[in-house]
What we know:
Elements (H helix, E strand, L loop, with lengths): L1 H27 L3 H4 L8 E2 L2 E2 L7 H21 L1 H7 L3 H5 L1 H25 L13 H20 L7 H24 L8
Antiparallel strand pairs: 1-2
Amino acid sequence: MLILALQALWLALPVLVAGIVQILVIKAGWLHSLAACPIDGGLCLRGRRLFGANKTLRGAVIMPLVSALASALQARAAPGAMEWLHVASFQMNHPVAWGLLLGSGYVLGELPNSFMKRQLDIAPGAAAKDRTALLFWLADQWDSVVGIFLVLGFVWVPGLRFMVMVFALALVLHTLAAALMVALGLKERIG
Length: 191
């Protein structure tokens, strides 16, 4: 079980690094021109934005590129750990492409949840206040994990035990990331 947990953390590491870089870029106000470009282009459905103003090209660029760089550094700086903790031969043989898939899956995984929230008039960063609150909280924790597994599905299919471990790890890591964002003034609440 410990090896499985370490493999899950090893898998998540490039995305964690990319998320931290994303937080720092937002806090510093860098790449403002990309932040001003919403992924949905301002399009609306039923008078509501598709994804909202917080889903921008800045995140869509930073997450895949930094995940790719972090994955390459991970493979180069710790080849022994990579040999021991990798979950797929593609991860070992193509770390940059693996990282691009991780980051792209992360970004794509968040979009359906954002779409549903906008259509239900839940503001970006706000929590649902009715009987859907728990459902949306779980979706906030796991949407990117689902996206990552779907995108990685082109090159690798994980086992059920590994997937359960990653979903459990995501609950912890998302909570810690949210706490960091609250501490930096980028979010108002953790949950």
